[in-house]
Every structure is written in structure tokens, then in C-alpha cells.
Request: fold
Amino acid sequence: MANPSVYLETFGCQMNELDSELVTGSLRALGYRFTQDALAADVVLYNTCSVRELAEQKVWSRLGEMAQRKARQPGLVVGVLGCMAEREGAALMKRMPVVDVMVGPGELDKLPGLLDNAVRTRAALADEIEPADAQEQRPDTSGLTSARQAALAGNTSRRSATLAAAADTLELLDLSRAVSPETLGPSRSAYVRITRGCNKFCTYCVVPFTRGAEVHRPPQHIVDECRKLADAGVIEVTLLGQTVNHYRFEHGASVTLGGVVQPQKGRTYKRGESQTDAYAGLNVTTFADLLRMIHEEVPAIRRLRFVTSYPRDFGDDVLTVIRESPRICRYLHVPAQSGSDRVLGLMNRGYTVGEYLEFLDRARAILHQPEIGRPLTLAGDIIVGFPGETEADFEATKRLLERARYKNCFIFKYSPRPGTVAIDRFVDDIPDEVKRRRNNELLALQNVVSDSVGREFVGQTLEVFVQGISRRAAKAKVRAERVSIGAVGLTIGGKSVGSQDDEGCGDQGACSSAAHAQLATGDEPAATPDEPVQMTARTDGDLIVLFDTTRPADDLMGTVQRIRIDASRTLALHGTLV
Ligand code: 5AD
Ligand code: SF4
Reply:
């Protein structure tokens, strides 16, 4: 098959978005073409998320649709990438014969080889099979196992707790990142991975099982990648990791294989031992060092952000670097998960509410400087309906929300995940209607808090990063086009601007977020000179700002501007360019 076309759909978090970008780059380099039209594609790939059941259900239903299509189009290749592939393993292939290729998040560098094989085998087999609609009976293509392959890490990623024992080929995927206007799009914003995996084992969470042990990338690789992106025009970089502030790279212990410095497994700390103790006296690049390096060595990056932070082990060194660095955003996403010490204990979070709030106070004392136009903003994650969560526990979470004063908070209903400690140890005893009620109550409370946080910005002049025309303006434009030139899909610049559902927004992806306006980004149409268009921008504290302008949208997209904040309305600030 010459230059097969690929449709790739991404579910879940920013880490998955980055994985999808890297996969797209590597497949493009091999001649695959990408299409937005799943029905026209020769290859359909789903990059999946397992954090909550709902995200997985969506993929099951997509696979069901693909099974029907494959009956008519036997040459179609279907791949499941990411956490669901890793979590389900062979069971997924058994349940869904439509799946040809499965690749876990730690093995994505193997996708091109597996896909090539699957495409060839499928094409050869398709020649021998008549489509179902031309036959009396549907062909049972499930027996065509020769086209079906998987690359999964299993539990190998946890084998060595010290150094990577073998070449970390996944690092090559990050290193070979294709940076071009095509892959970057017009937004001039990019993600850079600094750590993979997680060692925390919160009892509800599948990530340590699907993404494996915490692994830190060599600092020079990260800085080089930031430089490469900056050279290509990127001005905003978001560093990614499940627990970014755990980043540590021990130089004395680094291993080079095939000329490539290998990523390094994070240490597991002894009970009561802090990270600082564990690495004392060693030649280590800490997270604070890494931030400083990127800030100093790549000044073309005008906004450096990072997600997600773990509330414990957050040293003053990191806060001090942020304070001293004008280009590091004053925004922390530090999930609390619950406001009850009892629930935090059951979740194995490793801190108390008091310790969490102490950290927020410390962060505010060092970083909150509205008087110089540099306020600190905070975002959180909360899980409601964790097993055994009482009304008193829930009330404690409400108090935490009032006290934390997040600018927004991602609120999730507890979803029991196979393989986790929580599903084995605790009964999922909170009825769904109670989870829903608590979820709604917290969303309502967070809206009040977000409103009040937003009002503090009115009258201030802030730097913002312009992202695109607003969803409202984009929709209006689509409506106008529908009227004038007929039907146009509700897809602008490659991103759907349809309704916000339970998945796919926020720092960690799947969420129902209060105070989180949805944006339309991408190559939106420019405004005509005399017709103002509403654009969206983000402050360095990640607050959404809407503003009207008659300037061409293309000129403003991906630039940093100064805006006077005139009003704070539901979900967004409104301002004027100055
Ligand atoms: N159920 C509900 N929410 C979860 N999260 C992680 N695992 C679960 C689960 N089993 C939430 C946490 C985390 C975010 C990424 O997803 O709040 O911070
Ligand atoms: Fe999951 Fe985050 Fe806990 Fe790691 S720290 S186990 S990714 S919730």
C-alpha cells in the first residue's frame, strides 16, 4: 500500500497528546499521511487513557464501530496505543479481534515497525478476502493472527530500581522529535517530557502500572529539545511529568549506550527519607537546576511552565528559582485529591491536609507578587466518592477548596480501576448519585471561588499568550460559513469545538473542570479589518482572558501581549489590548 493514511485520536492527558505528536512525527517521516477523517483512513489509531473507566468505554465503543467497518474493508489496520493497551494486554486483543496492533506507552518507539508489518499483512490478506457486503456471510478475519502484534512493557519497567539496565529506546522517540511548522501548528506552544512514569502508587491510580517506574530524562536532552523548539518558533514550553518536582538526574551514575546518555530511574526513598537526603553529596541536577538551565540557556522561551507537581517534597529551591526567573510562569498545578486526612491516608498520598495547606502558604509567601504584576495562581485536582468517604470527609474537602483558593480545580468521581490497590482493598460503596451530587456541589463551590479569584485581577495589566479566536467567535464563524457556503464540520484548526464532556481538558486530561473555558486553537480564519473578533489568551498564571480586536488574528496568534483586565465573568477574564 503506497503511503497509507492514518487517523489518530487521542484520549486523556497532556502526556498522551505529546506521545501522539511524537508518534505522528515518526510515522510522517516514514511516509504515512495523516487525515482528520476516520472513515477515509487506512490505519486508525487510538492513543488511550485508563485513568477512569469512562475514557476506556469510549475506546471500546470506537473499536466496536471499527469492527463493523473492517467487515466491509478487511485491509483496515486498527491500533490501540497507550495505557489501555498496557493495562488490558492480551485480553484486549481477545475481546476485540478488530485490533491489529497494541503498543503500551513505554514502547511507542516500536510502533513504526509493528505498523508496517500489520499494514503489509492486512493488505495481502485483504486481497484474498471479499468485503462482507459482497458475501453471504461475514468473514471471520479474527483468525488472521499473523497481522496482530503487541509491544507492551509488562512489569519489566519495574525490574531495576536503580539504573536503566538496557538501552532506553523510548528516549530515541523523544530525541528524534520532528520539529516543523506542520507538527507544531500555529500555536507556538509545545510540551517537553522531563520524566516518565510514577513511583507514588496512590491507591486509586493505574498510572504506576501502565506507565511504569519513574524515569528521568538527561537534563541536556531536555535543554536541547527546548532549544530546538525555540529555534522553530516556539515561545511557550510546558514541561511534563506525573510528579515533575521529583525530577533528579544523578550525573555520577549516568550510563551512555550507543552514544546516548540513558534516562535514569528515580530512587525509591526509605521511610522518612527526603529527596534531599537521598541525593546529598551527589552530583545531581535537581528540578530547580533544570528550570534554571532552561530559563538561562533558552531565553527565546518566553513562558516556561510545568505540570503536574506533587505536594510533598516541594523544596523552596524550586520556588526561589521561579521567583527569580521572569520567564517562568507563576502557576502551580498541585492536586490535593481530598480535604480529609483520613481519606488522604487511604489514598496513600503521603501528606496531611495541614501539610498541604502549609505548602500553599509557603508558595504564596514566596511567589504571590500582584504588586509587580506577578500573582501566583494555583490549580488542583479532587476525587469525590472515594470508598468510605463520609459527609464529614466531603465537608472537609469543601473547606480545603475555600482555603486553597484555586483558580480552577479538576473534580473527578472516583472510578475503581482494575489492578489498583483501592479496587482490591476497598468496596466502591459510594452510590453514583452521591458521587454526582458531591461532584456538582464542589463544581458550584469552585465556581464561586474562581469568580472571586478572577475579580482580584480586574484593573491589573498582565502579559498574556494569545492562543486563537474564542470558541464563541469560532462557532459564530462556522455558523456564518454554514449559511454562506453550506455545511462545515464543527472542527476548527484540527480541534473539535463541540461540547465539553468528561474527557480531554485540563492539565491531566479527563476532567469536569470549573472555571475552564474551552478554546478553539489552530489556524482559525482571520477577522476582516472592520469586524472585531474575540480572541482567547492565557496569563502566565493560566487564567483565560478574552478580548475583542480588529487586528488580524493571524498576527496575534502565538504572541505575548499586554492586556488590561476590565471584567471577570463566568469562566474567563475579559480585557483590552494595551
Ligand atoms: N478515579 C477518579 N479520578 C482519578 N484520578 C486518578 N485516578 C483516578 C480514579 N481512579 C484523577 C486524580 C489525578 C487525575 C489525573 O485523575 O485526581 O490527579
Ligand atoms: Fe497517579 Fe499522580 Fe498518584 Fe502517580 S502521583 S500514582 S500519577 S495520582
Observations:
- The first strand starts at residue 5 and ends at 10.
